[in-house]
Write a structure and sequence with these properties.
By secondary structure, the chain is mainly alpha-helical. The chain has 14 helices and 4 strands. A two-stranded antiparallel sheet has the order 1-2.
């Protein structure tokens, strides 16, 4: 708040308080020549009389006490422009204290699960209930309440993991996030053969998960373009690279859609997917619980037991 605005607020508050004091004093006093409280001359039906009696002194004094309290309140709490108040209270400090208290309670609740392997947590019903609750509060906005995702948001219940589906890889994803970038190739491909080049590389990309389409003329031509532009990330056989988050193009699972139009848009304009980091928001133990629950969706209990025994 600027100095000018601060003084504006202070003066406005002072005028309002002074006005309340004056109004209270002015209306409560009796002046010489005022008629008696019973001399209003307002009489109805012969015996119904309106009086003009002042408020009791104790009632007036309560108003004055309220005004004094408001002045003390404004001096102790920040209510006068940029003045921080002698109590140094702020909503931020109040929030931080409350957050610290609640975080301490949460840490006590989650301490039993700290540093436990994800497969072990996946076999603990209480841990899984907590993990699912954390997921519903934190992750369901993007991945859906059933974790099946949507266009642009991966399905967490299948076996497709662009960044790796091992327990520690999933935990790393939750803690530190991921950022996948597919660069736009429209200008490059247009310079290598116009729209036919785009059609060819889309056809070849589709043929990687549909081998029967590999004999198509455009798919055959697209293979040459693919080998010149795409192998660095997706590999010569199209199986992707989990270190880069480059998806496997041979499994028929498409994050942004597998139609020719969707593939055309992905290749022409690129994609930029971000999984935000949750280390600061959740802390490691809660992140471990939600990662264990996510891992359990694609690893039934039998698999979890086998993984732990290795």
């Amino acid at each position: 708040m600027s100095t000018a605005w601060s003084w504006y607020v202070i003066v406005l508050v002072a005028i309002n308080i002074a006005g309340c004091v004056w109004l209270l004093w002015w209306t409560a006093r009796r002046r010489p020549g005022d008629p008696a409280p019973t001399e209003t001359s307002h009489i109805w039906d012969g015996d119904i009389t309106e009086y003009n009696k002042p408020l009791p002194r104790w009632w007036i004094n309560l108003f004055y006490i309220t005004i004094v309290f408001s002045i003390g309140y404004l001096l102790w709490y920040p209510g006068l422009g940029a003045f921080a108040g002698y109590g140094r209270w702020s909503s931020q400090l109040e929030h931080d204290r409350e957050k610290a208290t609640q975080d301490a309670r949460l840490e006590e609740t989650f301490a039993v699960y700290a540093n436990q392997p994800l497969p072990a947590l996946a076999r603990d019903p209480d841990a899984m209930r907590l993990g699912r609750s954390i997921f519903a509060n934190t992750c369901a906005t993007c991945h859906g309440s059933t974790a099946r995702g949507a266009t642009g948001y991966p399905d967490l219940t299948d076996q497709v993991w662009n960044w790796g589906g091992e327990p520690e890889q999933i935990l790393a994803t939750v803690l530190d996030g991921r950022e996948g970038v597919m660069p736009p190739w429209e200008k490059v491909l247009t310079g290598m053969g116009g729209e036919q080049a785009m059609t060819a590389i889309v056809a070849y990309t589709r043929s990687l998960s549909q081998p029967a389409a590999g004999g198509d003329y455009f798919a055959a031509r697209g293979k040459t373009l693919y080998e010149g532009l795409c192998v660095a990330c997706h590999g010569p056989d199209g199986t992707g690279n989990q270190a880069l988050g480059a998806p496997d193009l041979t499994d028929g699972q498409w994050l942004y859609g597998g139609t020719s139009e969707a593939l055309f848009a992905s290749i022409a304009h690129g994609r930029h997917g971000i999984m935000p980091a949750h280390r600061e928001l959740l802390g490691e133990t809660r992140a471990r619980l939600v990662a264990a629950w996510v891992w359990s969706l694609s690893n039934p209990p039998a698999n979890a037991t086998a993984d732990n025994s290795q």
